User: Fold this.
Amino acid sequence: MFNCNGSIVSRINQGEDDLIRALHTNFCIHETIRFNKNQILLLEEHYFRIISTLRRYRFKIPMNYTMDFFQDELQKLIQTQKKLENAVFILQFIKLNSSTQFIISLRVTEPLESINIPYKIDLYKEATISSSNLSNLTPTNWGIRIMAKRYAEENGLEDIIFLNENKNLVESLEGSIYLLQGTKLLTPRLEEGCQNYTIRNAFNKWLDRKQTLYSILECKLNPFELQKSEEILILSIEIGLRSVSNYRKTSYSQIKGQEIFRALNNDLFN
Assistant:
């Protein structure tokens, strides 16, 4: 189902002609929001990220774009489903003439989870992410991510790790990266070019304020840190947490990542 500027449609081509045409030809701003265990997760944080991104890209922000407005628009889609428990909303904002319009799609999915599955990664060296604050915004490196996804598929990888022009780690194709070393979880700083994901911020704050076993450290990370780590974790609003099983010839444990995510899930997402 789709919410096209407040109108619920079952097919995208049932939306307004100008809006659909703009979706195919104009630049879009994307935001992914999670509906998990019958609640919209981190709505306030997502709302402020949306407004900040619209401002950065010089989109005109309508006066009715309040947090309550977006909550109501998401609820319209939720009400079209029977017994909806877990879903992903994709919000797209499009500049049409002098106005800003939106399309929200809903995809029913599995709950946020952390499971032990083979999860092989490697570095992506065909292109780099710029270490600037523009790279914190999701649309900035969209083309690079499309190429990287194809690279991962061709090489039998579940994920890849991006580098910036200084050869430091940025993030993975699927989400934010964390390296477990002793009692520390190391993650790249925003200054390295990683996206300012809402779930990343929530996880970092949770580790800093409520987690006693592990501490968070945002810093520069070179690729050699991957092989020095006990576990490598990938955090995503769509899938939850994945523990890396293999990076090149190095194999990793996948136990502590699950424990961390269970604690996060019980504390933050319930």
Remarks:
- The two ends are 26 Å apart (CA to CA).
